[in-house]
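batch_manifest entry 22 of 60
target: ABC-3 protein
source organism: Kribbella flavida
requested by: lab member K.T.
priority: normal
notes from requester: please return tokens only, no post-processing; we will run our own comparison against the previous entry in this batch. if the run fails, retry once and flag.
--- input ---
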Amino acid sequence: MTLFELEFMQRALIAGLLTGLSAPAIGTYLVQRRLSLMGDGIGHIAITGVALGLLTGTAPALTAILVAIAGATAIELIRARGKASGDVALALLFYGGIAGGVLLIGLAGQGAATLNTYLFGSLTTVSPSDLYVVVGLAVVVLVVAVGLGPQLFAVCQDEEFARVTGLRVQLLNLLIAVMAAVTVTVAMRTVGLLLVSALMVVPVATAQQLTRSFRTTFMTACGIGVFACLAGIVTSYHADVAPGATIVVLALACFVVAAVTGALLRRRRSTRAPLADEEPEVGVPGPEPHVVTDEHPHAHSQRCGHPKVEHGDHVDYVHDGHLHAAHGDHWDEH
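--- output ---
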């Protein structure tokens, strides 16, 4: 029996495929807003949700998503309205999330082995019910990320401009934060809560090494995310290691390759580009034609009485409504 015939591997690969699509999709907006670590903060908060589910006997995925959404909303509100900056808001919830999770796990009587399956992912723990939740949430994330792409991009690019055009900036920012929380829950079983932020950021950073437009970056990042997830799950099965770490290491390897390739491509383009003085830049007018006056017996001088105008490295003389300038053995008209 091959690994693709094993039911738990089929569920893990489907979950990995959806995680590889949804995490970079919402991560593109987070990177654009310079909130790359928001996914990390939400992952810490989701630990408290998982621990709460284990303590109360409720499905950990359900409690994790509820607590993660509440935490993401708090981060956004503190950043937007509070006196604390975005990084301070993230730090506060980092510490609160991990402390609450460890405390509740201890009260639930669960060991470190149980907690590790949520922190670093596990192939064998993706149950059929987990897969249904992952499919449903991933579809919601992708529909929002693609369907509201223009509005979300406008808010991420320039909030003031988006507000002037009539967009509800606060609501869209909250939507991005909530979708990030949902994505964390989607990736919880495959990548793990502590490494999910890497899958949101690293594929996007990798795509930016090779692409220029936002749309191309979005699509390339999703492709890289899918490759890292599927290859990482297969590799972790053969190596018998946690899938989360394998997926992130593969994503980082892709970044190194893309960074080197991107640098070589930029150097090649710069060497093939024409020199600045060989061809005028687009939109910049070229030099005016050199016009030689036909006959000009009068020789201008400092004492000839014609008004003088300083012009770069020479002097022009106002003469019958135009300018004359000495050029070698003749006079030019300007």
